[in-house]
From TrEMBL:
It is an enzyme of class 2 (transferase). This is Thiamine-phosphate synthase. Pathway: Cofactor biosynthesis; thiamine diphosphate biosynthesis; thiamine phosphate from 4-amino-2-methyl-5-diphosphomethylpyrimidine and 4-methyl-5-(2-phosphoethyl)-thiazole: step 1/1. InterPro entries: Aldolase_TIM, ThiamineP_synth_sf, ThiamineP_synth_TenI, TMP_synthase. Residues 5-185 form the Thiamine phosphate synthase/TenI domain. Keywords: Magnesium, Metal-binding, Thiamine biosynthesis, Transferase. Mg(2+) binds at residues 68, 87. Binds 1 Mg(2+) ion per subunit. CDD domains: TMP_TenI (cd00564). PANTHER family: THIAMINE BIOSYNTHETIC BIFUNCTIONAL ENZYME, THIAMINE-PHOSPHATE PYROPHOSPHORYLASE.
Length: 205
């Protein structure tokens, strides 16, 4: 999988822009993976929205990951699921998911990263590496801790949190496999160029 530029959806950042249209523009700008991240939504609505998103991700052959919900990921035949500490434990998710489905987890420390790797995670989101308004009460991870985490595990690490075109360079040489971005793309007027700048700023990944 290509983790280079991982778009995380966020209603607040999107404002009154259309989600499906915005995802399509972001893919045109170079996004390589999409996570549908919805909070406080009914199961029915989550599935309905995920199916709409999947139409566009399938068209461009981009993997779709569902945040929090193993059942929704399975129901829409997504590529995988992203799980946090309050979600289904990774070994249980692995037990019921199709074998080729991807499980991502969020980690903030070397201990957590090692534990999630042992539990069977396929990749880790590590952050927040910069201050963010998108997720409240998130832990902060320093760049040197990010580097340490990358050195401590074998699975791909994606940096997340407050990443935009002016600070992305600080993540060079940390060992990450990609960057995960919400507001740095979704809140911009020109979605294609926001995604393109971020994707070009990391040619080494
Ligand atoms: N997990 C840690 S920070 C964060 C998540 C979901 C928010 C990422 O959004 P943004 O707008 O790119 O800071
Ligand atoms: Mg979660």
């Amino acid at each position: 999988m290509n983790y280079n530029l991982y778009l995380i959806t966020d209603k607040k950042s999107l404002g009154d822009k259309d989600l499906i249209n915005t995802i399509e523009l972001a893919i045109k700008g170079g996004v390589t993976m999409i996570q549908l991240r919805e909070k406080s939504i009914s199961t029915k609505d989550y599935i309905q929205l995920a199916l709409k998103v999947k139409k566009v991700t399938d068209y461009y052959d981009i993997p779709l990951i569902i945040n929090d919900r193993v059942d929704v990921a399975m129901a829409v035949c997504a590529k995988g699921v992203h799980l946090g500490l309050d979600d289904m434990p990774i070994p249980l998710a692995r037990k019921i998911l199709d074998p080729d489905m991807v499980i991502g987890a969020s980690a903030c420390s070397v201990e957590e990263a090692r534990s999630f790797e042992q539990q069977g995670a396929d990749y880790l989101g590590v952050g927040a590496v910069f201050p963010t308004f998108t997720k409240s009460n998130t832990d902060q991870v320093t760049i040197s801790n990010l580097e340490l985490i990358c050195q401590s595990i074998e699975i791909p690490v994606v940096a997340i949190g407050g990443i935009h075109n002016e600070n992305v360079d600080q993540l060079q040489m940390t060992g990450i496999s990609g960057i995960a971005v919400a507001s740095g793309i979704l809140s911009k007027k020109d979605i294609v160029s926001a995604a393109r700048i971020l994707s070009n700023s990391f040619p080494t990944l």
